[in-house]
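Appendix C: a fully annotated inverse folding record. The material below is reproduced so that readers can follow the format used throughout the book. The structure is listed first as tokens, followed by the designed sequence.
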């Protein structure tokens, strides 16, 4: 048995003993005993911000899609942080951004491998819950990053930025570009993507402001974070709404595909495009006038913070409760409601600053 597994087993047994249950050996426990022990240990746990970071931990990263450039950048950030902290990095994941069942099986695999923590970007808010709760019962710390699951299915969520800021600022960018007038559409990822739906909700709320009275959201289309589907959805939007003035795409795959279509069409410079993208993907389209400005956080920093959060949880510096603080990479972070940790405000990229970034 690995040392970390032994510690988890003994901690669970100690929690049961302290509650005066009649378990006398690990071999005599039932599934309910193990569940009760894990629950008791979690409820009794207190954060110790001065605790030393443990060494030799294994943190498994599970992105939505392993061959997605965005997640490649994010997970490299996580790998670098873990190497710096003396931990082991492991990555698994599906090749499709809509393979929810695949994500479940990968969680189960990481649980069986007895990793110390899992950092996962959830494809669906509820589909992973059963598997994640099983991992938690086995003493594994769960951090979601980029896209959250339900709060009771993880210990903490590392958010790219405040969801409200991301939703509202994308509308604000597009509104400025189209002069606050005309029809607009949203090109999203999967219809079940937690982060996408949250941002779109704030977009719709932002559009209720009287200053947007002459802007009409005509459709939310879904490209499933697939380049070809997103390209086709962009083409379909312009065929269905020939007077469309702008598209906002809160997904790196979607905005790049939309830019590719617009750049080679009669709509370049006429239909404005903004959303969330990476400088390396969109540099060409900024310079040829397809895109005026877009925004994003640094995904490598997101992966870095997810990794450091996982280690802080595994070391007992934080437990996931609101108000707890910890230092990661020289910056102090405070956990908000439901254990949410915000990376910071997004960066706006345009022709003046895009060459300063390389990701």
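Designed amino acids, in order:
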């Amino acid at each position: 048995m690995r040392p970390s597994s032994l510690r988890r087993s003994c901690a669970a047994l100690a929690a049961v003993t302290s509650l005066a249950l009649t378990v006398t050996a690990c071999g005599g426990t039932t599934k309910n005993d193990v569940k009760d022990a894990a629950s008791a240990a979690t409820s009794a746990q207190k954060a110790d911000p001065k605790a030393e970071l443990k060494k030799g931990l294994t943190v498994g990263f599970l992105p939505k899609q392993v061959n997605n450039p965005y997640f490649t950048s994010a997970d490299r950030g996580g790998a670098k942080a873990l190497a710096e902290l003396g931990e082991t990095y492991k990555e698994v994941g599906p090749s499709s951004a809509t393979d929810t069942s695949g994500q479940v099986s990968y969680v189960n695999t990481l649980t069986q491998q007895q990793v110390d923590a899992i950092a996962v970007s959830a494809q669906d808010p509820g589909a992973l819950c059963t598997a994640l709760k099983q991992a938690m019962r086995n003493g594994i710390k769960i951090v979601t990053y980029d896209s959250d699951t339900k709060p009771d299915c993880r210990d903490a969520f590392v958010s790219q930025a405040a969801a409200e800021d991301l939703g509202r600022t994308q509308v604000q960018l597009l509104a400025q570009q189209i002069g606050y007038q005309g029809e607009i559409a949203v090109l999203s990822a999967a219809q079940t993507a937690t982060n996408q739906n949250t941002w779109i909700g704030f977009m719709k709320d932002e559009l209720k402001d009287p200053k947007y009275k002459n802007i009409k959201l005509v459709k939310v289309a879904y490209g499933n974070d697939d380049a070809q589907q997103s390209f086709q959805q962009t083409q379909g939007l312009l065929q269905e709404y020939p007077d469309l003035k702008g598209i906002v795409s809160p997904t790196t795959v979607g905005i790049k595909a939309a830019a590719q279509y617009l750049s080679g069409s009669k709509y370049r410079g006429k239909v404005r495009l903004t959303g969330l993208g990476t400088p390396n993907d969109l540099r060409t389209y900024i310079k040829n006038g397809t895109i005026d400005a877009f925004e994003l956080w640094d995904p490598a920093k997101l992966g870095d913070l997810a990794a450091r959060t996982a280690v802080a949880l595994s070391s007992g510096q934080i437990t996931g409760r609101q108000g707890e603080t910890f230092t990661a990479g020289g910056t102090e972070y405070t956990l908000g409601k439901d254990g949410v940790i915000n990376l910071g405000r997004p960066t706006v990229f345009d022709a003046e600053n895009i060459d300063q970034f390389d990701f």
